[in-house]
Design a protein that fits this description.
Blueprint lengths: L1 H18 L3 E6 L6 H12 L4 E6 L10 H12 L7 E4 L8 H15 L5 H14 L4 E2 L2 E2 L2 E8 L4 E6 L7 H15 L7 E6 L6
Helix pairs in contact: 5-6
């Protein structure tokens, strides 16, 4: 019975995530992120939704100069798969910083609807390639030709290459991080799609 209740709860959460424009991952500051919280965060990431980690009951935490940094470090470890996350400390009971929550929601929503011009995007891609060239595989090197952004929520970038299979996972991750930093896209997932150009045999 407990398993069925948990499964029903997860299904409801998934449906809510799919409908949402922004997701709030609310955690108890005294308990930290639970395994279930991390699973839900994973669903949010996979669905491409912007999110804010809300650390509630912050008023009950004994604090020193390192408290916030320690929380951020723990969160970074638990949410390593979504290292773009933003967080805010609040107290629902006292209302502490609750007014700042809407600002965070507006912020991550704006990031999820960001659209780059094709010229600006290709300048960023060219800078990234100049800084670090794609590694060669089996004597062949991927050539990044150009990029477009067909959609938002999440910002989705299509990168055309001579052969998408030559773009190693680590280089894909590098380009994702470079684009994220260049456009300040924290708080939202971004999606990169690699497509082969016509002249595949280059």
């Amino acid at each position: 019975e407990a398993d069925s209740v948990e499964q029903y709860s997860v299904m409801r959460s998934l449906n809510a995530i799919r409908r949402a424009d922004v997701c709030l991952i609310v955690m108890d500051a005294q308990e930290g992120l639970s395994e279930q919280d991390v699973k839900i965060a994973g669903f949010i990431h996979e669905e491409g939704k912007p999110s804010v980690v809300v650390i509630n009951k912050w008023d009950l935490i004994e604090k020193d100069t390192h408290t916030v940094e320690k929380f951020k470090k723990d969160l970074s470890c638990d949410l390593a798969f979504m290292d773009y996350f933003r967080s805010i400390t609040v107290s629902a009971l006292t209302g502490q910083r609750v007014n700042k929550l809407m600002e965070e929601i507006d912020y991550v929503y704006a990031k999820s609807t960001f659209r780059a011009t094709t010229g600006m995007l290709n300048d960023v891609i060219n800078d990234a390639v100049r800084a670090v060239e794609p590694p060669s595989q089996k004597g062949r090197r991927a050539k990044i030709k150009y990029a477009t952004q067909p959609s938002v929520q999440p910002p989705t970038f299509v990168i055309f290459t001579n052969d998408g299979e030559l773009v190693h996972f680590s280089y894909r991750r590098y380009l994702e991080n470079y684009i994220r930093r260049a456009f300040g896209l924290d708080g939202t997932p971004i999606k990169l799609i690699f497509r082969d150009g016509k002249d595949k045999d280059e």
